[in-house]
Design a protein that fits this description.
Length: about 375
């Protein structure tokens, strides 16, 4: 099956996990950026190569936990502290999406992590959104920016207070809300602030945290759940997200690398995506951090098809849910893009199943 030719979305993609490795190497050496992983002397001795950096930022399946996975962001964020670097990373990420036939891309990031060079969060968001708009037009990719508060800080902290103020503004591209980082505060702690923002909400849950976190996320207004792998730990929670038509943003390769719960095998043969589909839960397939996890949406779909024996109609459902769940406030534009993708994908997949459209409409009854 040719997954590259299919029209796809990536709804769960961290901007600071998408930097090209070659770009990081170039920025570090040219701008002499030092982190805890190397010294200025290492830079001057030309030690910061792609191979050197790859050992730090590329995730492995034998990592101990989420914290080891997150160390890569020390490097990627260090390369995203100036206007020039932010514009470059945003532009290159959207260009890569275009090459991979991703028609709609949602980039999430925390502006508070990009203020080390005297930029305010407001300036960071203006830079990122304008760069996203320009690249969206240039590469013909629909883009939404998901602005994240940090779960490391209290809702009333200066960092998060400034981030929450960003949702009151308008930007050249649509925005949405998420939370990022290791969890210290509960969703309920943010409930008051979340209720005051008027943008779509997606929340990380059911990854390092269990099914109860998924329930809490839905209860504070999440339309989508980042990961949601552990939803299967509660049939009641599975029923809730089915009834609410909550969409799961699943990221299989990342889920094996973070190793935060040990409830799925490294081979993904027991990954619950097919179980959720058969239950009537809307699922999408995403990269999480394409450079760090070294994956694309196409490679994830291929991997899941091999491990879970997905049928062409399963692929068509997953892709359609991606376009249907996109955070685009322009309903007409969103439906036009979904329909364009559906027609093309059905045509491509009909090579493997001549009855795929009939099967699709029959299967969709389960998700009503």
């Amino acid at each position: 099956m040719n997954f590259e030719e299919l029209y796809k979305t990536d709804l769960h993609c961290h901007l600071d996990g998408s930097n090209l490795l070659s770009t990081c190497v170039e920025i570090i050496n040219q701008q002499k950026i030092v982190t805890k992983h190397w010294s200025l002397s290492d830079i001057e001795q030309n030690k910061i190569t792609a191979e050197f950096l790859g050992h730090i930022v590329h995730a492995r399946t034998d990592m101990k936990d989420l914290l080891e996975y997150l160390r890569a962001f020390d490097v990627t964020c260090a390369c995203m502290q100036t206007e020039e670097n932010l514009v470059r990373v945003v532009t290159e990420t959207i260009q890569q999406a275009s090459i991979q036939n991703i028609l709609h891309l949602e980039l999430r990031y925390a502006p508070s992590l990009h203020t080390q060079n005297n930029l305010s969060q407001h300036q960071v968001q203006q830079i990122v959104s304008q760069a996203a708009h320009n690249a969206s037009v240039k590469y013909n990719v629909s883009v939404t920016i998901i602005i994240c508060t940090m779960k490391l800080f209290s809702p009333s902290s200066p960092e998060n207070t400034e981030t929450f103020s960003l949702y009151k503004n308008t930007y050249p591209v649509p925005i949405a809300y998420d939370q990022a980082g290791p969890k210290l505060f509960q969703f309920s702690d943010f409930k008051e602030q979340i209720e005051q923002i008027n943008v779509p909400i997606t929340l990380h849950a059911g990854e390092s945290s269990g099914a109860e976190a998924v329930r809490q996320a839905v209860n504070v207004g999440a339309l989508r759940i980042g990961h949601g792998v552990r939803s299967q730990e509660s049939v009641e929670v599975m029923r809730l997200i089915k009834e609410q038509k909550t969409v799961l943003e699943m990221c299989p390769t990342s889920n094996t690398q973070t190793n935060v719960f040990g409830r799925i095998s490294k081979t993904l043969e027991d990954y619950p995506l097919k179980k959720y589909l058969d239950f009537g839960i809307r699922v999408t397939v995403n990269t999480d951090n394409p450079m760090i996890s070294q994956c694309t949406v196409a490679s994830e779909l291929k991997l899941l098809t091999e491990k879970l024996h997905l049928e062409p109609v399963d692929i068509l459902l997953i892709l359609n849910f991606g376009f249907d769940a996109a955070f685009n406030p322009n309903a007409e534009e969103k439906e036009k893009l979904r329909l364009k993708a559906f027609k093309w994908n059905a045509k491509c997949l009909s090579k493997y199943d001549l009855q795929i459209e009939d099967k699709f409409h029959d299967r969709m009854k389960l998700f009503k």
